[in-house]
Amino acid sequence: MPTPTALTGAPERQGRLVILGVAASDSHAVANHLIAHALRADGFTVVNLGTCTPVAEFADACERHPQAEAVLIGSLNGQIHEDLHDLADAKRAGRIHCPVLVGGNLSVGSVKDESSTARLYDLGVDRVLASAADLVPALDALHTRTAEHARTADRSADRTAEHARTAAERVPAAAAR
Asked: Rounded to the nearest 5°, which phi and psi values hold at 172?
């Protein structure tokens, strides 16, 4: 029998939104639906763009969902390098504001080499997943890192505000002398 967490999703993941889709030239839908289902069972909110999704549609989804913590792109036909040729431009323009994770069959042919992964990073991919089992741990690691960064930024802003208050208090005292 499934545990309550499997039925309702992990409470710490409730409300965390990801954008999912299959690369532009790829019409393989089964893995996409299985991943969406598994992510929802783990508590994620999934915006599933489906198959044959160009970078521009991922960018549009990011603009509609600024709270998205990641864009997840799958490929089974191995043509993802061509499909992501404009990813870096979309990221530079701020249209894709969150990390991009890719997985699946990421190159054509039976022999795979490391240059395929390096080329994906050069295109603007933030993380290449070797297995679907790596997806949730990768998302959790990104979330933890983002939360730590936000806490650090908040503390820094608090210190800056305190310094500004202290400086403002000193100015009238110095003027009175």
From this structure: -65, -35
